[in-house]
Design goal:
DUF1161, alpha+beta
């Protein structure tokens, strides 16, 4: 086996592993804190972010998914 196909295989594997790590599910509290920090930086006031079961979203705006896709983060203006 020549080195060029081997290097391509190693590079492709590294890319796939990197993507899998980036797509890893986050705990709801961690994601909620990250989003709240970004909103606070932008000066957004009077909002509530809640982690709810997927079937309990209701009319709220979904802004993320957490806990391995078992819950949704919702955003509501107060």
């Amino acid at each position: 086996m020549s080195t060029k196909p081997t290097l391509l295989l190693i590079a492709a594997t590294a890319v796939l592993l990197t993507q899998a790590v980036q797509a890893a599910p986050k705990p709801c509290e961690e994601l909620k804190a990250e989003i709240a920090a970004k909103l606070d930086e932008k000066g957004v006031k009077g909002y509530e972010i809640a982690a709810v079961e997927n079937d309990k979203v209701g009319d709220a705006q979904v802004i993320g998914s957490c806990d391995g896709g078992t819950k949704k983060l919702t955003y509501v203006r107060k």
